[in-house]
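User: For documentation purposes, I need each entry recorded in a consistent format: the amino acid sequence on its own, followed directly by the corresponding structure tokens. There are two entries in this batch. Please keep commentary to a minimum and don't merge the entries.

Assistant: Recorded as requested. Entry 1:
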Amino acid sequence: MTPTPTALSELRRTFADPPADARPMMRWWWFGPDVTRDDIDRDLTAMAAAGVGGVEATCVYPLSADPDRYLSDAHLAALRHAAERAGELGLRFDLTLGTGWSFGGPHITPPYAARWLDWTYREIGPDAFEAPRRGWPEELIVGAYVGNGSLQERPDSYVPVPVTDDDIRVPAGVGPRVLLTATARPTGQNVKRAAFGAEGPVFDHYSAEATRLHLDAVGGPMVDAVGAERIGSVFCDSLEVYAADWTPALPEEFAARRGYRCEDRLWLLVTEHPDAAAFKTDYFRTLTELCEENFLVPMADWAHRRGLRLRVQSYGEPPVSLSSYRHVDLVEGEQWGWTRLPMTKWASSAAHHLGRDVVSSETWTWIHAPSFRATPLDLKGEAHEHALLGINQFIGHGWPCRSARTPGLGWLFYASGAFDDRNAWWPAMPGLMRYLQRLSWVLRQGEPVRDVLLYLPTADAYARFLPSIDLYTVSTELIPPEVPRALRQAGYDFDLVDDHFLAEREPALRPTVVLPFGAHLPAETRDRLAAIEAAGGLVVTADGGGDWLADLAAARSSDVVLTPASPDVGAVHRTTGEIDIWFLANTGPHSRRLSALFRDAPGRIERWDLSSGTVTPCVAGPDGIALDLAPYQGVVLVGHGAEEAGDGPDEAAEAAPGGSEVGLVDWRLESAHGTDLGPVSLPHRWEDDPRVGSAFSGTMSYTARLEDLPAGSAVLDFGPGEPDESEIALGAMEVGVYRARISPPVREVVEVLLDGRSLGVVWDAPWQIDLGEVRPGSTLTLRVSNTTANALAADPTVPQWAAEAERLHGRRFRMQALDRTLGGVSSGLARIPTLRG
């Protein structure tokens, strides 16, 4: 279908100036809560000026000696002021319905606290045996079982024995035996990172009454104080209710749903009996249903009655499923890795099944830890990975709200980055935010093109539960990692699919389904797959060999073919039916020269620049569109068959013939305050220069006078980066730490000025900038800014206030990775810039 010139023109126009709702947001941490109106105004004003689109307000642990109490009048008034100020600045304001994670607090009494089955093994002899029922008042023995054997030679099976209110009665038997008891008791988990006055148990996410209790105690006061009309969405972070595998209503609910009682068979949960897999599948599927019906649904209903949208990271424990996302409004994931199966792929798959236009991700969670190590290039590189996984709304993790009263650098979150204006590289932030805004917007157009459904072996995951009951983690670990990697690198994109979503897939659409080898298929799923094959669809099993991929290729050609193939270059494709949009990204530290050939390629293809918003036509060769991708570079290609009408793209400029090339070696160094520090030789590392020092974070200027140059246009080239494949030393809590594995020529950003006129900020590959017309005698100034890691390493106040907070409020957090603050840090100019005519 050929698009109208008007439709294409409007798409180009909006790409150049995308809507505000595509801007990245920030998780905004309030410590205590202990914020003032001045703190709020300062943070929000800085965000708006940098191009951040909004905040997700989340209250965590206290750091001051006299914090406000959570949900106090002062706290609620601060939330109201923050929402009002955000509205004035054009920022979205989202609200987390609790403190820390997971949800709970002092309003959760023992009957409503999360519970688990605690298993006890005791060896007994052949005589009749009575054990007193003892324990905490909130504990309940829900099952006792005896089997022949010992603790060294465990029983093959068990039989239930009577449990009364007072004791357990085991009849006589023969030989040694094992008494197995299941005690339902509170998990004991309290809210992690809780605000002051919000300490208490995590609630039972299988209980609708517990959910309503929390919403009445916490959600209601916050929403009433802020006003629903000021809230973009209410938010629930990833579920981390550890080991919660029981609720008091489970026996009755299980019998009603599964058609038999569970009490006599609970022992199957902790044995290798042949009947264990089927029972565990029934048991944990019941928990999934209870979490959906008694947590997600009441949360959504509560939000909708107030005119609000519910945004949830629906994975973790309790064992919510992929299709559990159908109960919420806004779908969110986290973690990067475009050839793997992170939660972002889980979330984007659900969003596509549900027809949701926008899917968000918690971005930069563990990027180049600790705080202030991450650079704009790191942020861009990880965002590309999320985009390749189907994400089109970035929510940065995050922005610490710091009190003006704190000394030194001020407050930080205990983990990950701090992406606020304390970063010395802040001049790059507006450009980065604009770049990601365009990327988010363009990846919301049309529909995703995903050729394959990769089946989640949910039944197998249930059967392998305990100690974990995390359905996302266990089910994705059952898919060999080479399967998603092979699909992506062969040019296919895919959605994960579970039994529920597969049952809704129309066989007439003839989908392609890939099954993990050995997956157990419920009868309904087998019937659906047979119907798909009968309709002409393809079902292949990904065994240990490569034949499955050949069978897939024989039935359906790749969406994108790269020549030569590259393990670092990924692609994601969307289509409006008239216009095709591809985003390709080099996710590695090496430059890649290749051609991209698209299946069903349209008549015309254009390259849309994410940094400038400009559009230029591409010329296809026999292998497709030729691309030179610098390290961590992303490109948008747009295909269409429209005839041009008035405001089409500029013609591609011919490459200028090679001209003069001059290495600029004579520079003077100037301090951030304008003091001339004298001549400087390049390469120049600040940490080695006593005029700057290893503790300095900020901006230094390099100035050169351009003499004896022919007049004309010139490009300033800072040189290539050097790949850095060194390993990252990880802390115990750090999972999936991201960094761009490259040592750039500029550490980390440079604003380029010619005769005092700013030409732009350079912070990513290919580290070049067009100077335009350069005349002999012009003054070139390079304002180089590093990271704030140097200042963090030299600041004694951070460990001091962290230790004082622990003394005053207990151990609610541990600062992460501060001992690695300066590892590999380097500042300045690592190469001699070249002027090319």
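Entry 2:
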Amino acid sequence: MGLGTLQAWTLGLPTAVVYGSLALFISILHNVFLLYYVDTFVSVYKINKAAFWVGETVFLLWNSLNDPLFGWLSDRQFLSSQPWSGARLSSRAVVLARVRALGWHGPLLALSFLAFWVPWAPAGLQFLLCLCLYDGFLTLVDLHHHALLADLALSAHDRTHLNFYCSLFSAAGSLSVFASYAFWNKEDFSSFRAFCVALAAGSGLGFVGATRLLRRQVEAAGRGPECPALAEDGGLCGEELLTGCQDAGGITLGQYLQQLARHRNFLWFVGMDLVQVFHCHFNSNFFPLFLEHLLSDHISLSTGSFLLGVSYVAPHLNNLYFLPLCRRWGVYAVVRGLFLLKLGLSLLMLLAGPDRPSLLCLFIASNRVFTEGTCKLLTLVVSDLVDEDLVLNHRKQAASALLFGMVALVTKPGQTFAPLLGTWLLCFYTGHDLFQQPPLTPVGSAQPWPEAPAPAPAQAPTLRQGCFYLLVLVPITCALLQLFTWSQFTLHGRRLHMVKAQRQNLSRAQTLDVKMV
């Protein structure tokens, strides 16, 4: 196959495939980050407790604020275009701007990921800088990637088509977790470091290639008057003008926040989602700890690697069959069913006790799978909240980007609370301080988990029992809190149908010069 033939073949790829491949390059990095960054700094770099807490506290503030901040900075150039100024932006120009931003921020995300695994500063300082740099570039990449979902397609069918490929490529990217556990060794970190270098290089080059290809496709679509190749798969055609910008300055940020504070369903949703974000990251951060202390004597290294891989791949595959369930019964009912399932499985595991390795393996994996699967559906709920916000406040234009940013502002602290509360609970219940303990051998090793000296006989069961109770009581508590807050959420059933109908009436009353794809 010649170079010209290869170029023609890549340009002929559906836009949905190219867009979905960006999720692959994010996923192969972020899953490894979530799984290993805490253990790396605690067990390998030996960060002290004070530096760890300071780093996580600063990260909590930065992680919460950068979503609305970067969202406003990235969209300011579009919102400032007033109709009387003559600076009318086309939707194709907006797409190209976002693709160019991804072309820059994606490789920078890969470099910031690489900075975790190579010691280059005192552990406390490196921990703080790496967390803030990585999360900053991840936020920029996520914002532009999610915004492209709305910019490349307008109909629900086409957006579902794009989201399908995102889930498919995210599942493929999660396969990096299968390989990661085979390289993970706290005593000899060089092999894991080399593995992370390979991931970063592949991700960075992938972002460059995918964004260039997507930019060429969008530019080619603008030159073709009919552009059939992109129209069939959710792509964008022509120079559709953005005519909703004139209402961008009609409300101040303070007025918007006052309206949001009166949005009852928004408040109940962010309360539920805060717990959800906490539980997702708790599972990611403490997965290796549970394997070491609860299953190290019962499963091999390959089995541990398989459990890790399944727990990261399966949630993305869940999205492929949860979406039909949502269309049939509604997102509210499916999410409530997942909360009930989480509660039931946790109670069953609590009654069974810590001495059933097979049941423990199933519970550890399924707990993460169903928790992460729930997260994949909540974007649909936020979209419904955007509709309700528009109807309640009689807006001429939906404030979708700002609402997504405000959800992240309130819920992202759960990502920081997870490692802090988890390490504190373990120390409080067992007296086992992760910051002062010798490193543990990996799952499947011939030695028992404590290297030396062995604790007194009465202490070892206490640590194992503590890990078990942490494993089951956290999801029980989270499920109960979420079932209560979700029961107060009323944007479903008849009310949701009413909001959707009013939103459609408003849309018909304000005909925009935007083509449906």
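Summary note for entry 2:
The chain has a mean pLDDT of 76.
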